[in-house]
Amino acid sequence: MKNLDDMAPKDYFYKNFRADFIEFMAKSKMAHQHPGDGVYIPIQDLNEDTMSHVKTDSWHTMRFLYCLAFTVLIDQVMYTCFKNDYAKFQSITLYPKIEYGISNMNARPWDIAQRAGGLTTFEKFAEFFGHYFKEFFEKQNFPSVNWAKVKEAMLGDKDVCDGNFGKIFCDKLALA
After folding, report:
1. Measuring CA to CA, which of 36, 69, 72, 90 is 20 to 30 A from 18?
2. pTM for the full predicted model
3. 45, 29 in Cβ contact below 8 A?
4. How large is the average pLDDT for residues 54-60?
């Protein structure tokens, strides 16, 4: 396996994240499907057992958790703000929802990111995902959603821009 220490966020996301996520899901004992909403995973499943394959080093863990946090974030934004286009979005991305317990209460993406630490590394992921989201929504043809609306929804959401992680992301997002 390639040493992930020097792997850029874009490279990890495109080359490793999906496989790491599939392995994580296979190990999760509490992941469950909600018809029409996708997969829900309790935040407690982010543990030593389910993440052993990304615990090979701290950089791998950090990259996995940051990618997971951003995929959860955009899934929440689409589900909350653009419900009419959510089914199409979900069928393309297959991004999960992370919940507190088995409660249907979505975990805040920054609670996932916080498990990784490292604000300097997070800043690199925030910059990448700002550009990735822009590119994704510019390429997709959703009936009522475009990049400007998604960006505006995220920048206008106090939960997205809250705390150290949120401030870093929204600063990078404003430039995307």
Report:
1. 36
2. 0.91
3. yes
4. 77
